[in-house]
């Protein structure tokens, strides 16, 4: 058994006990947290395999990015001034690139995405895309914990439907056989009713049952689903999903801007989580999601960056700040979403959404050793008031100095230990040149 002691830190446990230790320690045994407490209570006669002096630093649970598309790092800056939250905007910009994208262009951009998430304090993320054969090896090498969803887009085409569902089934079989348990396969319908027909949805639900997993979707960015369902079925999209028994499966639903309030109680009664991507929605000129109302109704809320064409970065500290400010702006009152609740959304909310609440989300003994260390020597930390306000409103992810997942270092002293960021950036720039040339040749 290997042991590691992080000592003399400001330790923010979060979770139900919500303990804070001004001079605390975290003891790790193998891949799990063994103990958390005050330095005054630490036994003095123990020897540890590793020790990290965290004087002047803060230790907290790692953040969960519950919605992104890592290969789309390749498209950063390629959709400026366009809303990707509409079918038309997405199809006529990003989709034109995806249609000429080749599999060998994926790994470098996934590595860039994973490196940026690690560098800014994310330890777990949820992805939705295709080219999963290229994504899985990079994520596995990164050391991150991830819920990977094969993205299904069929646009009512029976041939595309058959092809995509076959690839989805094969993907879920592959991920299920991977060792280690850090990577989980999910079903990834791009959007119910909009580009996944009801016939496809029912098969996707069956596959989620077969592999005991959930469905990662986009929903209610502009109300297209509700308009379709009202026209064809005389009910809202949520009501139709409920009728089809789709809500019985865990659903990770990105955006959820325009879900009618009448449907909130239905969603709260099911394993449904909505992922708020505040920066992406603001850049798209979309409405602010009713986070405060949905949370009060009992719907689990998580946080995500979306892709970096909509955002354009992976820093969840900045995303927390944007979410908190946007909630106050929407509700027209300060502190509408308190900083402590925002941290809960970025940790425990994401853990629950991904079915990992018993493993991650807070620093509780017995849970996985997924945590981050921030250097309190940078700007924004003084004068000391309370750590929640500081973490949400004052600092950013670049003050993260160290990252652990499963008790393994992914970042040490602000240096990646598992990824070659500089090399990935060089390869990505070459990939972008080839991509743009291919699009030019097809138009």
Provide a quick synopsis of the model.
The protein folds into 2 domains: 3-61 and 389-416, Urease, subunit C, domain 1 (Roll), CATH 2.30.40.10; 63-353, Metal-dependent hydrolases (TIM Barrel, Alpha-Beta Barrel), CATH 3.20.20.
Write structural notes for this entry:
This protein has 443 residues and is α/β, with parallel strands linked by helices. It has helices at 87-91, 94-98, 106-119, 132-142, 158-176, 198-210, 224-233, 237-243, 264-268, 278-283, 291-296, 316-331, 339-353, 387-394, 421-442, and strands spanning 3-14, 19-29, 32-38, 50-53, 57-61, 63-68, 122-129, 145-152, 183-189, 215-219, 251-255, 272-276, 300-303, 371-375, 400-405, 408-412, 415-416. The chain folds into 2 domains: 3-61 and 389-416, Urease, subunit C, domain 1, CATH 2.30.40.10; 63-353, Metal-dependent hydrolases (TIM Barrel, Alpha-Beta Barrel). Helix content is 37%, strand content 24%. Strands 1, 2, 3, 4, 5, 14, 15, 16 and 17 form a 9-stranded mixed beta sheet that branches. Strands 6-7-8-9 form a 4-stranded parallel beta sheet, with helices on both faces. It has a 4-stranded parallel beta sheet with strand order 10-11-12-13. Helix 3 crosses helix 15, helix 12 crosses helix 13 (339-353) and helix 13 (339-353) packs across helix 14 (387-394).
């Amino acid at each position: 058994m290997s042991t590691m002691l992080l000592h003399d830190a400001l330790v923010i446990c979060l979770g139900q006990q919500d303990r804070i230790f001004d001079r605390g320690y975290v003891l790790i045994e193998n891949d799990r947290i063994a103990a958390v407490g005050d330095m005054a209570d630490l036994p003095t006669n123990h020897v540890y395999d590793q020790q990290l002096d965290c004087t002047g630093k803060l230790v907290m649970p790692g953040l969960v990015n519950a919605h992104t598309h890592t290969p789309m790092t390749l498209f950063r800056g390629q959709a400026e001034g366009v809303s990707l939250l509409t079918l038309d905007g997405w199809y006529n910009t990003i989709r034109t690139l995806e249609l000429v994208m080749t599999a060998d262009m994926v790994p470098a951009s996934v590595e860039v995405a994973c490196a940026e998430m690690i560098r800014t304090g994310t330890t777990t993320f949820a992805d939705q895309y295709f080219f999963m054969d290229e994504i899985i090896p990079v994520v596995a090498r990164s050391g991150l914990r991830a819920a990977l969803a094969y993205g299904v887009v069929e646009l009512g085409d029976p041939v595309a439907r058959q092809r995509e569902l076959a690839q989805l089934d094969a993907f879920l079989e592959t991920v299920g056989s991977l060792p280690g348990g850090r990577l989980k396969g999910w079903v990834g319908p791009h959007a119910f009713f909009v580009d996944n027909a009801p016939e496809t949805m029912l098969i996707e639900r069956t596959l989620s049952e077969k592999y005991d997993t959930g469905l990662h979707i986009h929903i209610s960015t502009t109300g297209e689903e509700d308009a379709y369902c009202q026209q064809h079925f005389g009910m809202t999209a949520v009501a139709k999903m409920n009728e089809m028994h789709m809500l019985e499966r865990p659903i990770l639903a990105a955006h959820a801007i325009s879900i009618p309030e009448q449907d909130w109680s239905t969603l709260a009664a099911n394993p449904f989580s909505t992922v708020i991507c505040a920066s992406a929605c603001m850049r798209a000129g979309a409405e602010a999601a009713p986070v405060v109302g949905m949370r009060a109704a009992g719907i689990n809320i998580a946080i995500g960056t979306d892709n970096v064409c909509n955002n354009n970065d992976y820093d969840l500290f900045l995303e927390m700040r944007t979410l908190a400010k946007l909630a106050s702006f929407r509700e027209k009152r300060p502190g509408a979403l308190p900083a402590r609740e925002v941290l809960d959304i970025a940790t425990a909310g994401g853990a629950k959404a991904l079915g990992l609440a018993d493993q991650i989300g807070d620093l509780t003994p017995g849970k996985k050793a997924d945590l981050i260390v921030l250097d309190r020597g940078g700007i924004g930390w003084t004068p000391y008031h309370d750590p929640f306000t500081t973490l949400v409103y004052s600092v950013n992810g670049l003050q993260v100095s160290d990252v652990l997942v499963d008790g393994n270092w992914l970042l040490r002293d602000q240096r990646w230990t598992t990824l070659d960021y500089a090399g990935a950036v060089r390869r990505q720039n070459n990939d972008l040149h080839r991509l743009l040339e291919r699009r030019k040749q097809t138009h």
